[in-house]
Amino acid sequence: MDQKVLLADDSGVMRKIILRALNAAGVTDVVEAADGAQAWTAFQTTQFDMVLTDWNMPMMTGLDLLKNIRQAGSTIPVIMITTESERGRVIEAIQAGVSDFLPKPFENELLQEKLVKHLSALAS
Known about the structure:
Strand content: 15-25%
Radius of gyration: 13 Å
CATH class: Alpha Beta
Organism: Rosistilla carotiformis
Number of domains: 1
Domain Response regulatory: 4-119
GO biological process, one term: phosphorelay signal transduction system
Keywords: Phosphoprotein
Protein name: Chemotaxis protein CheY
């Protein structure tokens, strides 16, 4: 896959796990961000095809990152990889325009399914 992905998670270990899954799915052009603010800065200066973000991060949450991306007019897929499952917060993310959720912990196959689903939609 030739897509460029922005990966935002404050856990370096989790970024490595997700990065390995992305590489296994053929996605090698990945920009990592250690918090939401860093991700937002990267998003504003680089063209991405997809964003994978944690919900709870310092500086800026994944939800605020999502809201900023949508307010900027971008419709690219944004997948939240999170332990957040409280109904009200999930609804808030849906209303903000999240494309999909991936609950932690996850199987690599599930991440790959979501990547193929959303990146294939971009290609068609």
